[in-house]
Description:
Membrane-bound Lytic Murein Transglycosylase D, Chain A, ten-stranded antiparallel β-sheet, 3 domains, 14% helix, alpha+beta
Amino acid sequence: MLAVLALVAGxxxxxxxxxxxGRGGSSGGSTVRAGAGQYVVRRGDTVYxxxxxxxxxxxxxxxxxxxxxxxxxxxxxxxxxxxxxxxTVKRGETVYxxxQIHGVDMSALVRANDLAAPYxxxxxxxxxxxxxxxxxPAVRTATTTTSAPPAEERTAAVPSAPPPKATAVPQPPxxxxxxxxxxxxxxxxxxxxxVAKGMRNDGINISAKLGTSVRAAESGVVAYAGNELKGFGNxxxxxxxxxxxxxxxxxxxxxxxxGATVKRGQIVASVGQTGSVTSPQLHFEVxxxxxxxxxxxxxx
Length: 300
């Protein structure tokens, strides 16, 4: 599902280049700490580099220091390195089994470590556990990979456990009409394509009253329902026949779950003000495979 999320990373907003691209040249040497649980930013450092060097997920480092896009750092800035309970991966272990061992939610474990589907992990890899703070053990090197067990093994181990997000969604049902229905009626406040200050919108933003019902633009199957992608708030992705994907973001409430089959016109969410917007609106995208296309070409 994280691969699908990567397709919709173009909502209105600047590119988060400073996560990965250093400013001001080389760091001039290896990274250093400034006392227990702290780090002093050096020339060329980035959030990604510091998180990797200190063995913590980038998301956790950002949250611990209250960093905001575009995550620019200043030389001499002191960052707090969050310390969390960890688990060192052993041979034969999977993300699912580790979550069961420690009694944590698998989805929370995946988010805490920025793992991408199919959640392959390595022997010796240190995973941060969601929960109270603690001092993590030293990071070991990894040589062998292991992936999640088949569905039959998971069911046998814990019959009552819900299926993890890595499972495939059902095939979408046939389309019920030509074009797409408007998911909500309102004024388009941000059009598709390039907008001010070098930003780009991969969809359209429709202004509407808070709580207004959001309807599926066409029949399909829910490929994602959650709020893990920063800036989009509560977001829903629906997969349709023919490789078409529609996105509904900044929702106040999501009313369907991942894997659910929805009909054209069915209420799937409500208009909200979540994520990076400052007024109630719906961010709506249409994608043909991985390519974002102007929704106005499809809407009836």
